[in-house]
Amino acid sequence: MAMAAVVFLFVLMGFLPTCPAAERSTAPLSHEEQIRLGERIYREGILPSGEAVQAVVKGDITVPGTSFTCVSCHLRSGLGSSEGGVVTPPTNGAILFKPYNSSYKDVTNDKRYLPSIGQRVAYTDQTLARAIQAGVNPSGLTMNPVMPRYLLDDKDMALLITYLKSLSVDFSPGVSEREINFATVITDDVPPEEYEAMLLPLQRYVNLKNGSINLYRNQKRSERMAASMLVSSELMYKKMTLARWMLKGPAETWRKQLEEYYRTQPVFALLGGISHGDWKPIHDFSEAHHLPCLFPQTEYPVISETDWYTLYLSKGYYQEGEGAARFLNNSDETAPGGKVLQIVRASRESQALAKGFEETWRELGHDAAVTISLQPGEKLLEDTLHNALKTEKPAAILIWDESGAVPVLDLLSSDALRPARVLVSGSQQAQHFGAIPEKVRAFTYITYPYRLPQDDAIYNIYIAPYKKNPTTAGAYDLNLKSSFITTQILTSALMDMRGNYYRDNFFDVIGMMPDQRYPLYERVSFGPGQRYASKGCYIVQLGSGDKPELIKKSDWVIH
Question: How far is CA 328 from the centre of its chain?
């Protein structure tokens, strides 16, 4: 510990030797390259050399900066966070280099930070370097000891400061003094009744928001009440627009269409959206333009641990495969060594289910499942199924097949080699639950990625205003409920942003929201960097009758 303290002291005094000239390029870096390298230090804790930043915590413990990155507390936007009673102040360029005190009225001055950091003068490059290295702010006050002290030499410190000067300085495209512009993306494979259900809550929200502007202007009492509730009073008078970006033709043409829409009218974020195809072209467009996309309605989200700019409601079919893997992992029959047989139709839905299961099953330490692949229209023969049961002796069977699952279940009902657990997809079979014979229901388990219908009924009041026909269900209900969730999260996010209209801040504040309970999903939960809001799946069985109730056979299986 003493040695670490000596090293830390030498860093502060500037006595540590710099890297030899041969190890550090002497060629001047472009401004763009300086920002890129500084961004990597901020977000990943990685130096230009490829080595991890070193940091000191609790006074004398040296740790890799990759474990205590700047972004983990100050967030991607640099606007800071509050967790566990520890308030992390903003580190973005619009705030760092200005005085910070209670009389400062700029909308970017969030008063919630003042009790923790006190008033301070504006930072300079030199005082900011001292704050990062020694934990002393420009007013001479020592910062909270939870902040690591980072061991950066002059060159690397200059890169980090250059990046911080650029971080969240100018509001993002799509925002003006009077307007904030949004868009929603609709592909032409979606029937009008489905995308209209998606649009209803969004458009109603925008209409109500814009209609309230005149109310606030004419009724001061309403204005004062709204100002108190919204935190950021300027939001009351900011008009919203919602453009419809209709994509036509093959998916490979969507990017060009999106670019033209965006060129014509840049937007702050994409809201909702719907497609029956692969969302990846739209996802990639959002990544390229740093354009947030909030809760598109797709069964084929991009599964990624690193991409940032699309926040999905769930992982779609993939998530059901995950749920099946975790359910079987907790079953005695499928302890290590127990085989699993997959019957997989050559369709996009079935392939996504199989991928979710296979990847999760391997991560849990199991051998790969044995797979029987079926081409479109191909029927699984009784002998083929019986021979697979005899040869492989599976502890469980997965049937990822929309139209062929019931015939296979029927074959299994009379086969003595059938295992105790056979799983099918709730999304694939939702329209066929009543057609699943009672004789197979005792051994048939179903992945179900939503709150059970009998439990979700209490939330129907939320979508009643949007339903033209109270008995409408199925995809229409799903689209309505998903879009309703989008409006609720949007409402909270705009208030929590406090007038800081930076796209990264939009998702930062969503990431800090507590768990929410809305229609459709058991819970919608968030966390910094998380891209999938609903993280679970039930395993259920069917009750009796033509309209069987779903009976829980598991807790909410978390991925």
Answer: 26
Greatest C-alpha distance within the chain: 81
- For the chain, 559 residues long, the average pLDDT of each consecutive 10-residue run is 36 38 63 96 95 87 87 92 78 88 41 47 94 90 87 95 95 94 98 94 94 76 63 79 98 98 97 96 98 97 94 96 94 75 96 97 94 96 96 96 94 95 95 90 96 90 75 77 96 91 96 92 88 94 92 83
Tell me how far apart the alpha carbons of residues 226 and 149 are, in angstroms, rounded to a whole number: 42
What DSSP letter does each residue of 416-462 carry, written as one string?
Answer: TT--SEEEEEHHHHGGGGGGS-GGGTTTEEEEE-S--HHHHGGGHHH
| Cβ–Cβ < 8 Å for 255, 285 | yes
* CA angle, 510 then 515 then 519, to 5°: 100
Find the length of the chain: 559
- Give domain 318-448+540-558's CATH number out of 3.30.1020.10, 3.40.50.2300, 3.90.180.10, 3.30.70.3340: 3.40.50.2300
Rounded Cα distance between 190 and 187, Å, is: 6
pTM of the model: 0.87
Domain map of the chain by residue range? 2-166, 179-316+455-528, 318-448+540-558
179-316+455-528 and 318-448+540-558: same fold?
yes
Q: Are 551 and 542 in contact (CB under 8 A)?
A: yes
Query: C-alpha 337: how far from its chain's center?
Result: 34
Cβ atoms of residues 335 and 318 within 8 Å = no
Residue among 536, 539, 559, 537 nearest 550 (CA): 539
How far is residue 258's CA from residue 293's CA, in Å, rounded to a whole number? 13
For domain 179-316+455-528, the question of CATH label 3.40.50.2300 is answered with yes
Q: Are strands 557-558 and 536-542 parallel, antiparallel or unpaired?
A: antiparallel
Neighbouring-strand partners of residue 86: 83
